[in-house]
Amino acid sequence: MDLQQDHQRRIATLASEIDQARTLGKRIGLRKSTSNLFRHRAPAGKHLIDVRPFNRVLAIDAERMTAHVEGMITYQALVDQTLKYGLLPAVVPQLKTITVGGAVSGLGIESSSFKFGLVHETIERMEILLSDGRLLACSCREHPDLFYGFPNSYGTLGYALGLTVRLIPAKPYVHLTHTRFTDPESYFARIVERANSAVDYLDGTIFSRREMYLTEGEFVDDAPAVSDYTYMDIYYKSIQRKPEDWLTARDYIWRWDTDWFWCSKHFHVQKPAIRRLCKWALNSRTYQRIMRLSYSVLPDSGGTESVIQDVDIPIGRASEFFDFLLSEIAISPVWMCPFKTRDSVRTWDLNPLQPGQMYVNFGFWDVIPSTHEKGYFNRKIERKTMELGGAKGLYSSAWYDETEFWSIYDQPRYAQLKQTYDPHGVFPDLYSKCVRRH
User: Fold this and answer.
1) Where are the domains of the chain?
2) Prediction pTM value
3) Integer Cα distance of 124 and 254 in angstroms
4) Which of these, 46, 47, 50, lies nearest to 32 by C-alpha position?
5) Using one digit for the tens of pLDDT, what is the confidence trace for 90-115?
6) What are the start-end ranges of the H helices in 45-166?
7) pLDDT-derived band of residue 67, with 50, 70 and 90 as boundaries?
8) Which of 18, 117, 280, 409 has its CA 20 to 30 A from that of 382?
């Protein structure tokens, strides 16, 4: 039995299980091996379906530059396969454990997004397993309502078990230049300028109000020297001391994974003595496991607030958010990633961003001191984001009330999608999945 036939056989088995659970009136949840969500809730009584085996590359078409993959494949596994052909996915999210299906349902981003858009805009076709057990193929021409409604649905309309991913040519190395700026107006103006250039990758790192860097990456065939940030050297610290750098294509793609951007500091592994002993632990998978274990065994002691957020702000309002973030939230460093939605006309139903407009994604993740009520700083961020015409990622804790949430995420359109593809409410609705805590 070839991979495609086995894929269909296992989908049929899973569909039967979902249909049985639906008949019994049970809510459905996923059993999977990785998760990049940061929403900590007590488990609700659900029937869990095991999608962990759906983690393979089914085919790579080097001529068309596409990969047909199963939804639970991690980007690490996909990149390992595509690089054999001198190719990479057009957009590869930052962490090795992120799955292709998860990046579509949760709006993945990376430093090629200024050119190719968010992850879902690089997907040509999807196979969605619905709550009645049907597998429905969708694309911009085939069931387009589901195709354009699925991104940002977080498993509330169905599960992507097969996807066709667009690939791009890759060279062996990436040449990086890190340019320092000391005022935000010049910084964001340069982003607009460079977003229209021929560079392959574009992102930035903000250390303070007077120290921010724009990093440009370009594929090259040769490198005079190659840096290694998989062990003792730390990538984000190199940005401040190296105006230029070279990495292999693979190491560039995973440059943030070794230290989970900079969040490895919470696990003390940035200390050289500990780092020498823990090479095996220097990866996002380990940090996530430790974090989830700590949430399950340690009580909330108060006095702090976890602020784990990615927000998308129109480029014209980016300086305002920059000032707010550094003065009122006071987290640093901050990751900055520009992107532009590729289609200048068509919108994605559950992604409240304007078509054809450039945005800046600010990523900031830390635990900060607080004497306020729970969620105080996160709510401030949500309100400021709304005020500036932006949107936030729903992978983390959200504090919207229900009216506020549905004013952002187009409740009438979502209700139509839900009625069409999950009429019996086998899956939770988007507000319950992403916000409600009980």
Assistant:
1) 3-170+418-434, 174-255, 304-399
2) 0.92
3) 24
4) 50
5) 999 999 999 999 999 999 999 999 99
6) 75-82, 100-105, 113-116, 144-149
7) very high
8) 117
